[in-house]
Protein 1
Amino acid sequence: MGPNGNSKQSKCSPTRVKNCLRTFLAHLFSHIGLCILVVGYAIVGAAIFERLESGYEIEQRNNKQKNWTSTIMKIRDQYVKELWNITEQFNVLYEKNWTTAVEKELRRFEDDVTSAAKQNGYDGNSRETDLHWSFSGALLYSVSIITTIGYGNAAPRTALGKVLTMFYAVVGVPLMLLWLSNIGTLMANTFKFAYIHICCPKKSARSRSVQKRSPSLKQEPSSIQVKYSVSAMTCETHVVQQQQQQQQQQQLHHIQQADPSNFHCLEKTPRAMMRREQRATLKTLDPAAKQMLRECAEYNVNMSQDERSRMVLHQLHAAESNMGTMTGIEEELSDDGEGMVDVTSSIILPPPLNIDGMEIEDYGCRQTLSEMSSGIGVSVGGSVNGSMGRTGGGSGSQISQVEGTPSRVPLLHRGVDGGPDVVDVETLDEYSAGSIEMQSNKPDRCESPVSSDRVPISLVLIFVVVYIMVGATIFTMWEGWSFLESAYFCFITLSTIGLGDYVPGRSFKSASTEEGHAQLIVCCLYLVLGLAIIAMSFNLVQEEVAAKVKDIARHIGIIKDSSGDR
Amino acid sequence: MSDLEYEQNLWPRIKSAFRVLVAFTFSHVGVCGLVVGYIICGAFLFQMMESHEVEPMLKEVRQLREETAEKLLSIVLKSNTLEEEEFFRLANVAIQNYTYEIVNAISDGYDGEPKPKPLNWTKKADSIDRKEMPWSFTGGFLYSLTVITTIGYGNYAPKTAQGKAMTILYGIIGMPLFLLYLSNIGDILARGFKWTFSRCCQCNWTFIKRRRIDENGEVIEEPAQEEEEQITVPISLCLTLMVGYIWGGGLLFAEWEKWSVLDASYFCFISLSTIGFGDLVPGEAVAAESLEDAIQYSFVFCSLYLLLGMALIAMCFNLMQEEVIAKVRVCGRRLGCAR
């Protein structure tokens, strides 16, 4: 915790309480805590809704039965009488005439029954003796709300139920999204780890050795935005000139070789970049970035005696001398937020450099530097449909330093040799997965060694499809649906469409038995786990998909190449 | 220009024209059109696939009717002197079975004979009958919309196997497309909103700005853009907008559909949050009266409302996220959870 409170902790009880509270909350938003929170929320919701709705349902059901029976009987009597009249009319029975007349009557009878069924809301399920709003049914209901699936087989009929549903959803849906992002990242990391170590043990060894070679640019990517790599590069060139650091040059080389197309990010409109300007916090910069910032600021000061660069330098020095914890500076900065932003945005960088034949705009670089000092976060996405927790954050290892809020996904594109993580462009005006989940601040996430491989898309897709198939087989066994129907149900559920034409539990042995309950609970678990898997697959896949889409787009020519060949 | 040169110039021009076209398609306006077009295609597709299902059911029911008539005939013919009571009793049994079968058919989706009753399915009849049948174009449209937005009401659901398979394919392609649309539109709307908001704020601020310059005596260059971008729209405004939209929609639907205001707002909320129970769906109340125009308007309005509403919500998220994250961070820091 903070450096100050250590000695006084044992004495001062409010401090101790605060600390306890802190640890409690920290754990609360950790993995297990969230799980428990979500499960608890679902169960509480189930209990509440059961209470509210089951009484009403029983009453309605009885009424409906009575209504239906009486209506049908009335109609039947009426038509039988009609038939009798017809029979009487025909003194001499001509079969054909009689049959025609009878058929006409039957047809009208049919119409009456149909319209009565519609009015009564009777969908013909007289065999359905089980209540929708048993506890397990209510559990399925609350799960379907917070995951936004929304089957609709059980829907609240009381006014209070409806109001409560709305409030329940308003709290539950973000909670679910949060949990999904959490679990998604965790599972993605596990998956990657397993993939690396099982499938490609050689490469993992190689990547680790590369890590050792390049300590200055940390392997663990801090959450840095696109432009960092470019600004790093431009600053680096003059740094390299000044200091001739072999390693950095090597890194530079890596960056250039890895994917020169990364540099076209500069052509993004300044407006777009300014849009993402956030309150800069020095805290989020890793040492390499700070180094860059210092170099650039020094250059500025030397060249043009810029006041603001001086300020930056001063702050950097102060930061370094402050025991590693940046809270002091940060407070200063955040109060002085405006100032900080101004400072960084006006740092003048060295004149445009020609690197491998590419021109780098000075203006762009200026902007990028300003953005460099803002951290990166992943933020709640712009998709209202983010029910699946479309998890962002490419490598997942930037979680520990989530700050700032660009509205787009920061994508990390790994260099060929496991070199520094070159940040790729996320022109997400073109790319759909603009929505990312909100990462809560997790303390000290120790990430698995970042690999140079990405998990191939095909593997992830196969995994998802296998999961759907497994679910389909389960439901075929339990529900008596055909395999296609079960697969269709799984798809509709996991995509959160949730039509509700197939709902598990209708043909359970009996929802009130132990077995029936267990089956319904297993359904809920399958549902939730499936969503987590989908979140994980989004997490794993989106970098590649974005890169591929960009490649295609560039190939077609939507995005103009920065190299200028058009 | 010789012919050869002209040809050589033509090809790159075509290519660039094509590029422009594709770029436009994936641009802001294009994506809207793409989404709408996709939904319309889906509507046609599903209508085609699902309409066939009704025919076999009709045949079944007709057969049932004939059988029942024969049964009754046999009852009548059984005895020369037929008592009324006996007839009633026997006929009741026959009709009971008939009722049971009809009700089963209804639960499977049978909707009664379409009226006016055509015994021949000619194209002429289609224009009137199709609208009465369960899978009309508007029904298909709403269905496609609910699939790609993942709302999924369920009042229409595919019954045929190919309809189901088609739904899966349609969803896999349509959902990312819709996400693209949302992010695009949300972006534009957010920018527009911010711009408007900042303009409104600037009217108040220009006064202050001038004073600052006067005091210092320097010319402090403060480009307007900087101010504009730093303004974040307050969360309360975004929330008010969302709530207002839901409530407004509630009022409108209550008016159109003869629901209560609570029911209508509940419907709007459930739809816009993509939960989509389907217990309340616009157009059903009107369908009973079989006013064709009214059905059309109702569906069209509902679709527009949903598309616009989701874009608005995307916009609000876009605007709110910065502030929300910042606030959460501050809270977290204060509590000491974050480092």
Protein 2
Amino acid sequence: MAAIGTRVLSVLLFLSLSNLASSLYEDQVGLMDWHQKYIGKVKHAVFHTQKAGRKRVVVSTEQNVIASLDLRHGDIYWRHVLGADDAIDGIDIALGKYVITLSSGGSILRAWNLPDGQLVWESILKGSNPSKIMLIVPTSFRVDRENLIFAFAGGCLHAVSSIDGEIIWRKDFAAKSLEVQQVIQAPAEETVRVLGYVESSQFHAYEINPRKGDEIKHVNVDFPGGLSADTVLVSDDVLVALDATRSVLLTILFQDGEINFRKTQILSLVDDSHGVVEILPCKLADMFALKTNKFLVLAKVMDGGVVELVEKIKEAAALSDAVSLSESQQAIALARHENQKLHIIMKPVHDWNIDLLKETIKIDNQRGLVHKVFINNYVRTDRSYGFRALIVMEDHSLLLIQQGEIVWCREDGLASVIDVTTSELPVEKDGVSVSKVEQSLFEWLKGHILKLKGTLMLASAEDVAAIQNMRLKSSEKSKMTRDHNGFRKLLIVLTGSGKVFALHTGDGRIVWSLLVQSLRKSEKCDYPTGLRIYPWQVPHHHAMDENPSVLVVGRCGPSDDAPGLLSFIDAYKGEELDSLVPIHSIVQVIPLPFTDSTEQRLHLLVDANQRAHLYPRSPKALTIFRSEISNIYWYSVEADNGIIRGHVSKGSCSHDEDEYCFDPKDLWSVVLPAETEKIVASETHKINEVVHTQAKAIADQDVMYKYISKNLLFLATTAPKGSGEIGSATPEESWLVVYLIDTITGRILHRMTHQGSQAPVHAVFSENWVVYHYFNLRAHRYEMSVVEIYDQSRADNKDVLKLVVGKHNLTSPVSSYSRPEVTAKSQSYFFTHSVKAITVTSTAKGITSKQLLIGTIGDQVLALDKRYLDPRRTVNPTQAEKEEGMIPLTDSLPIIPQSYVTHALKVEGLRGIVTVPAKLESTTLVFTYGVDLFFTRLAPSRTYDSLTEDFSYALLLITIAALIVAIFVTWIWSERKDLQEKWR
Amino acid sequence: MEGEKLWRILTAVAVLLLAAASHHHRAGAFQSDELLIEQEDDLGAAIGGAGVGVGVGVGVDPVTPPRSRKRYSDAAESDSKFQFPLEHAFGDSDFSPAGTFSARLKTWSHGPQTLTKLRFSRNALTEVDKEKFQKLLQDDDFYRIRLPSNVLSPPGRDYIVSSIKARCLPRDGLDEHFVIHMDGVNILAVNYGPPGACPYPRQLKLPAKWSFNSHTILKNSEQAPRTPVFAEEISLGENGEAEVVKPPEKSFWAKYWMYVIPLGLIVMNAVTQAMNMPPEEQAGGQPQGAAPAQRGPAAVRRR
């Protein structure tokens, strides 16, 4: 045991000496990092304003977030991000103090405490088969009642006590083969009604005793025409449904145990209806809304089920649910666009001609159309009714509108970042006015004197606060010009809504945003989605007068062979320069290492048939490409088939006249046996990675040569059984095979099997090493492995004499066709966390040592020094190896709390980490995205090439001045003393 | 011929002795004999050229476990000979047969099948092929080969294709090198190319001899090194302690020479100064008897 103690001690000692963790002090938080919290696109909103000191709205979003927002400012009171597979189906407020959520396909019912968001109770609902999901929370609670919540999911109706989540009773409707459409609890009545179809031709209505769950009444009627699943409840006893052909409206009345129905032809409502008719799922009280491909139709159900047309709306519009103003009065909000203005109209249900409120708001063009409206009423100071509207826009932003003004707005589109690229800021131009300099000079002096006070411990508490404030809000970091160190950049972010944002790295503010027109739904493109964003044009020669631009790649539809789309955006102005919609399908985008005369980067877009298309489509680009065509190779991974193929261009496409299209020729293929291997991960180098040196000096003055080829592919496969959830396979029937494949020739350079291990695999590839993370079933733990690959063909270049004489092959070009002489070294370590994303720091010249950035399951980013993942680590390193900085071998990788890059913050729903080199070699910029955004600056080997920002120049100057004064004073003194000596 | 025969017998005896020594349970004489014949076969293939005037080199990757162990470990194994084709194409032409691989398939009672004794015989190039190859060399185009992905039921799911720029192959003859990556009876990939480097830019060079010199290696997957588990800490710890004691092996001089030499110099300096002082003060009155003592300081002074 003593031995273990000494080993641990020695490792700790080593750590403390080398200080691998680059932690920061409390007062440095926020200096170079920023964190933004988002919630995502709102699906549901419930207001809580009555009798509440703090007015709030509780929302659930498409990013599986539930949040309570401040209605005054839009801030988040509390928020919970549920798991990726825990989608929220319904929310409501019960008992005035609990937020009830139904999630995971109706299987989990939870109650959260409204003021602080604590989980109060959780119940698992077991259903038998998939069905509609409904959550019914009675609006009025009485003390004497049991206060039941009804949740319908999985074909079963559950009655759950809202106080402790106990399931009181459960009634299975799936066993009766009933497709339940609606469940109602009328406030006035003591029963719960369940309405549904059997084999879509019989309508059934059940009345159930809410206390015990027993059936009170059951009636049914046949519909020979058949019914569709589109239904809406108009009132407590009227249901509107579409028949199977979607051309006839059925109004079904079920009163006093009888069912009556009435048919209305849709053509009689809308004379020229075309396309598929849908009923909108809005609760409009005696009304309902139909959507055709041209109109939004509002209709009212009169007594006896007669349907009457109320209004046809041509423009894009959105409807809210009805809110009740008084016992008899209910109102609906209608938001419609007209000439780039948004009109919000409140109308009472009983009289459509009156406008309770009409407000016109000028809205930013970049927000697109209104997607959802939620309405809340309040009593004004003059006792009339006022309304506030919560609006969800096309770009997923959330706006609160009250009294004709936008009270606040949240850019929640940023919760669904898809891809990130960066752009340099404009170069600073001459002509700064003198007064500005003087002012800044004064500020500068003041600031430094304050800092000096701080250093000399003379500062009062106020001064300290002022210093901290000054540091945080330094205008230096949020300037709109390029800086010497390359810390200031634009992060250009593509989001799921099709909006592109440019964020400033200094403070995270939005510089511009653009709702890309070609990424909006149009006739040419039905379901456009953004895929990737690439730097398109980076001007170096004309940096003063030309703007850089970015390329957005997307596709119309979910499948690989859907037509693609391209959009080119100016990175400074945020304007769409050009777009191509629709084009050939896009499965792969290859930025080539060539630029044309206007510094546009050549890109090769590979379509679903493996044909390559060259962009930009200019003759100059074509000439450049043609001259390099024999050295351009690409590969495709068919993950489902387990086949990897390499291609080269054969020449222009044979089938059409397009000279920018090139046919592929298969050069090589790797076929993995389908019964034993399934591809789970593949990883390549970053395109823009810089490697400083090929040689690696190791202990005893020896040197090893890294095998640095940009054309390496890391591939991980598992047994088909092992590709499922962890624990679904036994260690004997699961294995993980890793490959390093040269993508030019298809050679397998290294192949290795990890027995008893399984997916998920996350990998990162850099220089000559790859690090991957997987689960070890035998050890019941996660593991990380490293493979380093070294070039043996250059190993005999160590002889100095040979180097002098020139008999070395260091300058000869490397060809992939030579037989590779490589050795691979590998080692594995245990790692405590499961991993969401993994990447590596990158610096401008690649000199600085590297850190792995690991997005942990706790939504934080951990920086782990690459030296921990060195395959040459041994239990007892020799003296020479210790000097080299080798860490003694341990079986697991340490997690040092100070090395969390995100310090105390969480990047909820973490999905990706991007690293960008700064101009300063020691520093790298890290951007982490998920539901939240986080940005910081890292220096893996400390900032060895610059002084820290809070370095006190004033102190230095004063010290020098004081020294000079002291020299003079002592000189005079000594002169005097000399004189006195001589006079003596 | 006589010498070769003798050599064969000698090797056979040596192998027999080795096999006998490595196994505790004594095998029957007949079985050992069988092993002999096969070993002999292998040697023959490796030394002499077989087939139609084509040099064939066969190697088995050292990763595959030693043969003799397999031989005795499992009684239920079966062993069958079979062949699979190699096809080639010149540039964009269609594939045509180029040679055959023959190997033995071993089936073990517990499931897995492994290939051993892979041999390759290439067909001689026809005149048409030569012309095509020359054209490839002129155009710096690709010479492509393919193998079935399953050796038992060719072509399996798909062919394994590999290509090389034709200009990489010619040396004296046409030198080629195969590394076939196997998993049981499946071929995953083949690394195909010249046995050495292929310098860029590729020079046009016609081979002196229009025949292939083939080298073949079979490769199976390596096992990843196990994660180190420090369970036997105590024994390791003892080792550790032993190594802690190790450093004092260095001699005193080796460790502290850098301190000792300056110290010595200082002392000597001081001594000389101390020695010099008296003679200067008591100028001539120095007795001659101290000659040996003065020799040293005199030498120092000269420095």
